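Co-fold these.
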Amino acid sequence: MIFPFQYKYLPEVGRVFVPNIKVGLKTIDGIIEYDFLVDTGSDLTTLPFYMAKKLEINLSKAKASNTQGIGGHAVKTWLIELPLIFPNNTIVVRASITYENSTPFLLGRVDFLDVLYSWNFNAKKKTVEFEKL
Amino acid sequence: MDKVTRNFTSFSKKYGPGFVAYSKKSGRVLAHGKDIKKMYEDAERKNLDLTGVVISHVPQYGVFSAY
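Predicted complex below.
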């Protein structure tokens, strides 16, 4: 699976590569595409709280936990199973829903990078490449 | 497979921090909000067909991100 680099501009440093890729999720509105940040620093694929409603996930039946980010800030989370829909493939991963609606969509390592695919950031081709093991 | 390289700077300047729903075809922002719930409420007010958009988090312009 191959995705083109995305970019943003930061005043102090100039153009910065952003590893955003499009991933489909099956919601109550149909299959919708979301920009996920390919985050090798994130254990779990992570979504904001409101997505539980859109994905019809009953959080009272999910295992509750905590997630810690930069600065040690901890937020309540729930562990779920989430099918990630790609053009030719659907990959089910364990993911977390945070108790916040500002959380970005993060693609984490569990059930993906460590066991199914290599993640390559090809600076020559300017692509993010997922290579099946 | 997405083949378009995008620059999110304009999104950040106008809508960040928050979430946007942008058209897959034109790249134009069709709904936005300070958080995902508000973005969805904006989309519902506009009767937006969400199968034609991509939903994306937009960071605050000019601020470094660390996730």
